[in-house]
Structure formats: C-alpha cells, structure tokens
Amino acid sequence: MSVPARPGWIASRGTALRGEPAIPGDKSVSHRAIMLAALADGVSHVDGFLEGADTRATAEIFARMGVRIDAPSASRRIVHGVGVDGLRAPGGTLDCGNAGTGMRLLSGLLAAQKFDSVLAGDGSLSRRPMNRVIEPLSRMGARIASEEGGLPPLRIRGGQRMHGIDFESPVASAQVKSAVLLAGLSARGETSVREPHPTRDYTERMLSAFGVDIEHSPGYARLRGGQRLRATDVAVPADFSSAAFFIVAATLVPGSALRLRAVGLNPRRTGLLAALRAMGADIAEQAHASHGGEPVADLVVRHAPLRGIEVPVELVPDMIDEFPILAVAAACARGTTVIRGAAELRVKESDRIAAMAAGLRSLGVHVEERADGALIEGGALRGGAVDSRGDHRIAMAFAVAGQLARGDVLVDDIANVATSFPGFAELARRAGFGLRAR
Ligand code: S3P
After folding, report:
1. Residue 5 has what pLDDT?
2. What percent of the chain has pLDDT above 90?
3. 26 lines ligand 1 (CB under 6 A)
C-alpha cells in the first residue's frame, strides 16, 4: 500500500516581485484579542483577525467554554464577553492545534478557573516544553499535570486558590510572561514578571486597552488580581513575521519593489529590519500610524545586495520567529553570517536550527550548526529537496530560497503554512514567485 504523499511545493525562480501583497493579521495579537475579549464584560469587535488554523483553534476553544463569537465576515469577529468569572466547563479536551501561544496563555488563564480542563495539541506542540509555564503557575497555587518531561497534554485542576508572585523568568518568552500575568488577573494580591530580556508586550498593552490597571516597561510587568476587563474594539495590524518572507524575497530578487501596507512594527518584533539593514537591505518606512495602539507603517522594499553579519545577540528576542528567513538571506549574502544566543530556536514548531541547516545544506550551502545558532556561508543556491519538518516558517523560508536557486527547490510538508499564513502561496505567486503545488 502506498503512503499518500504529504502536500508540497515546487519553488522555482519567478519574476521580479512587484505590487502590494496584503499581509494577513498578526497571530500574537489575534490570539490575545479573542482571549481578552472573551473575559471582558460586554461586546468587543476584532478587525483584521488572522484566519489561521492556530487562531481559529483559540476562538473555537472559547466557543466551547460558552463564549459566543460571531464571524460576520472574513477577518472580523464579534466576541460576546462573559466576564472574568463567566467561562463554562468545556467538557472534553481543548485542542490548541499547532499553537504554543494558545496552549501557554490558556494554561495561565485556565489555572484559575473553577473547572478542570485539558489542553492538547498536534504532534509538534506535543513535543514542546511546558515546564516553563507549569513551574511559575504551580508557585501561584495552580495544579497542572503533564506528560513525562513537562510535555502536553496539560491536565489543569480547577478550583485552586491562586496567589500572586514576583516571578523572575529564566527565559525571554512572551508566552511565559503572558501565562503568569493572565493567571495573576484572577489571583489574590499582586503579580509581577521580570524578564532576562524584554519580549513582545502585546498582553500588557492589550490588558491596558481592556481597562486593566497594569504597570509595564520593557522587561517588566505588574498587575493586581481581581480586576475586571471592559470590552473594547481591537484593530489587528498586519503580521510582521508573515511580511518578513516578502521583505526578504524582494530584497534578494533583482528588480523587485514591493509595498507592504500597515505592517505592525512593535519594536519587540522588528529585529529583522535592523539585521537586514545592517546587511545592506533597502527598506523604507512610510505612512507611520497607530493601529489600535500598535505602531504600523507601510514598508517599501527594493532589491539590494546583502553582506553577511554577526547578528547582535541583543536582537535575538526581537526577531525570534524570523531566523528561518534570515538564514535564507544569509545564504544569499556575500560573506559569512553568524547567529548566536538563539538556543530557543530548538524548541519552536520544529528544531529550527537543525531544520534550516539541513535544508540549506541540500541546496549546497555551507552551514556550521552550533548549540545556540549557526554560521552560514553566503553563496549561490542550487536546487534540491528540503523537509519543512511540519514547520510553517521553514516551509515559507524555502519557498523564498526557490526564487534564488539555480534549480527547483522541492519543499515537503507544507500543510502547516495555514497555521499562520493561509493564502501565502497565492499571494506569493501574484507578486511574482515561481511556486506551484507538487
Ligand atoms: C509569541 C511569543 C514567541 C514567538 C511565538 C509567539 C507570543 O514565543 O516565538 O511565535 O505570541 O507570545 P516565546 O514566548 O516562546 O518566545
């Protein structure tokens, strides 16, 4: 019996990239918008919601807990909040799909509920570390059981009396910070989180937009438990991490000029811009505005030759999701690029250091893999076959590599692109990519 082939792409050189591809909504902001709107008193409208598998899974979970969520049109949601104490026991396992953000933030939010719950996910999520949230939440009084080694599913025992803590996070992770803050909302007393390096602050900003009194500055946040949330409308900016594939493609493909409208430019997300500019990229920002309290701008990207750099370690958390595509930029640059201090990449949707090193090597690139990064020699790419390891960002990064390689790049296992960027292939083709289903 033959095993059905996994969906894949053949990526090959297309034309110079042109136009204004419309980048979908931010994944981090979409998850949080559903969560906070569900917990708020009143009705919230979410505009620009990401119609991805990850964020839809989060919406489905709240629907299972009794929250009415209307979808009047694509990328719009109307959330009828039930209040911080209004969620109902879901009955049955809650499926977070591929989403680490969904599972980790929900673990904090559910630890303080009256009812028991179980959080599970797909094969990739089931291999991702959850002790980083279980430990601080347990210190707050939560009872959470996991599989051996802190792996999902998570079995959360409700009805615990949670209390605030002062948490010094050992890891620079917005998901860990957010889990603790969301638990802190329902805990007695104050909860504070200090991070080893500032991470994205969407939870803090959005809690404040929902009327919660929260003090925060880069790397620090503190709130008092027992506060209620007031419904508000959320305008979700275009996702910088999705825009990144087009930014790098337009930089690399000769003759390209792309405009990406109203992309979210939260400084904790845009480390890639600094790295690419240091490599010689031509990326202009126009029409700066604020989109629901988040900075946005149009990005105008023109082709420019790149040179290798040592990526400054302090930029790593600000570009943590962009290393797959940065590695492709590095492979096409003149000289060597060195990535250090990025061991977190080993526990993302795949081991992204290993996945990129293996994929780039099959395209003829010299890569030295290190425990916390890699050294990538720039040069010409040849065609070859690469395995995305089920990781959306690895798949899209190699679709970009195919625009530069001298032969076809076969990208295997692309189904999870739909977790963060449904419609990527169509949008990329319209901009000029050579990209077809295998
Ligand atoms: C996210 C935080 C980051 C990032 C992920 C989304 C978030 O993860 O990699 O894609 O929405 O808080 P960590 O907090 O684990 O670094």
Report:
1. 77
2. 98
3. no
